[in-house]
């Protein structure tokens, strides 16, 4: 194989197989290339820029086809299933709540809105767990019903 051309690890592994030379599979070649790029070990230093010699340049494959699991709440009730009286916006105490997460997930705000009065409150959260959120909502409800 010519040293000036760019070859994919798939082609290199196939060529070794054709020539009956001992070699490794293309996945192992990719792992080695990306390992050299992401580590600072002295032994890998000559191979640090090896990824730029890949046929497709600096592009890297994505791993797996995973679904995004953020935001899926177990046993959640759909908004279409809420009672009709809530839809009318005629009684106090039916609230909508939302959490806004800050930069780098370091801070969070709880925004609650009463559906009847459209009164909106904003509280800073110490943590984003359910216990912290429920404490603030209960405290807000106690203040409103005094």
Offer a quick outline of the entry.
The chain is of the alpha+beta class. Among the domains are: 9-53, no CATH class; 88-144, no CATH class.
How would the blueprint of this fold be written?
Layout: H1 9-18, H2 26-38, H3 84-88, E1 95-101, E2 108-114, E3 120-125, H4 130-144
Antiparallel strand pairs: 1-2, 2-3
Please tally the β strands and state the result.
3
Strand order of the largest sheet: 1-2-3
Radius of gyration: 28 Å
Query: Which overall shape is indicated by the principal axes computed on the Cα atoms?
Result: elongated
Contiguous low-pLDDT stretches (5 residues minimum) are: none
**Oligomer kind:** single chain
The total of helices stands at 4
Mean pLDDT: 80
User: Which range best describes the helical content: under 10%, 10-25%, 25-40%, 40-55%, 55-70% or over 70%?
Assistant: 25-40%
Characterize the main sheet.
3 strands, antiparallel
**Element pattern in H and E:** HHHEEEH
Strand content: 5-15%
């Amino acid at each position: 194989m010519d040293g000036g051309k760019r070859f994919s690890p798939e082609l290199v592994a196939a060529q070794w197989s054709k020539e009956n030379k001992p070699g490794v599979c293309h996945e192992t070649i990719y792992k080695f290339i990306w390992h050299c790029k992401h580590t600072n070990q002295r032994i890998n230093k000559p191979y640090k820029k090896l990824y730029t010699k890949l046929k497709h340049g600096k592009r890297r494959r994505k791993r797996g086809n995973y679904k995004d699991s953020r935001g899926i709440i177990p046993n959640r009730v759909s908004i279409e299933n809420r009672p009709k009286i809530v839809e009318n916006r005629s009684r106090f105490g039916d609230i909508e709540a939302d959490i806004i997460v800050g930069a780098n997930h370091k801070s969070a705000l709880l925004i609650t809105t009463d559906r009847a009065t459209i009164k909106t409150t904003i509280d800073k959260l110490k943590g984003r767990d359910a216990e912290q959120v429920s404490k603030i909502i209960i405290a807000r409800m106690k203040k409103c019903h005094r």
